[in-house]
Each structure stands twice: as C-alpha cells, then as structure tokens.
Amino acid sequence: MPPLDSPPATAAHVAPQRVTGYVPAMRRNISASMQLLPFMAFLFHIFSAGAGGTDWQLAFEWGGLAAVSVTAACLGLRLPVDRLLLGVNLYLASGAAAYAVQWFPMLGLYARLQAAGILAWVVAVGVADFLLLLRSKHADTCSQRRALRLLLTEFVALNWAFLFRDSHMLALVLPFATLAIMRMVLNRRFAPAMASGSTNETEAEA
Prior knowledge:
Blueprint: H1 11-14, H2 22-47, H3 56-76, H4 83-100, H5 104-113, H6 116-135, H7 141-163, H8 168-205
Helix pairs in contact: 2-3, 2-4, 3-4, 4-6, 6-7, 7-8
C-alpha cells in the first residue's frame, strides 16, 4: 500500500540525485491534487445551492463517487495517500453509502455533527496511521512522534469543529487550515532527522 503522506526529503537528502529527487515531490503533489477534487466538488455543490437549499443526497452521491474513484486510482497508480484527505474522502464515501442504503442513524449523526463529522474521520485515519507506525519495524521514532503530534492536533480540531459546528468558517475552514499549517511545521522539523535516520540505516546495511 502506498505510504500515507510522509515528509518531503530535505535538500541534503536529495543532493546526490538532483533529478530523481523531484519525482517523489511531484507524485505527492499530483496525488494530493487528485484527492482534493471530491471535497472541492462537494463544497461547490453546498455553497452554490440556491433558494431551495442544499440537496445533501446529491452532494454526497457525487462526492462519494468521486472519492472512491480517486482513492482507487491513487492506490492503483501507487501514489502516496494523503492522510488528511483520506479521512475527508472516507467521510464522503460513507455518506454516499448511507444514502444508498437509507441508513438514517448515520445520516442523522452526520446532520448533528456537521463539519465535525469530517474531522471525526480524519482522526480515525490518524489513529490507524499512528498504530501502524507503532507496529512497523521500519518506522523510526521521528515518524512516530510526528504522527502523534499531528494526531493530537486533529483531536483539538475535532473538538473545535464540534463546538462551533453551526459556522462553516469556524468549524471547517479554520480547523483544516490549522492542520495544513501544523503538518508543514512538523514536516520541516522532523524531515532532517528522518532523512538522517534513513541514511544511517542504509550505511549500516551496507
């Protein structure tokens, strides 16, 4: 399975391979752009609703179909899977499935949670990612610490989104902007140590 979003390699790490070093970053950018499309389509459908209100079933059906298609394409092409966007796409896919089978308890739960429902899936993916890192023999301490700190930030974002769930700006835009910034900070902080650890492991194996 393709890795969940790993920190970008540092300049020192890619210096011996200046040309090929850009390939992983390009693959991450392409994959992230693809995985963002279903959520953008979902938001466009919501915010472009006219006087008749939002057709949530149609929004979830289109968003869920796009989420499943994009995620399957990323897995098939072995592109990196973005941890945050995977949670968002699972939310869309589960909402579409709930409408398809008329599972009203889940639909009612999503209606009460509002944007916090999206963050709940993001947290679930974060927990699974962290547990997999703990059990992995190849994950270093820096990767685990980075995943844990991002997970704690996701928990805070979830509680914030639930507290202000009646406001799209406070419950959706602000938490995701915070998570994106936090991830960039963690990537820059831990990438040098992780790259150094990978280099040491390679030298030890040699």
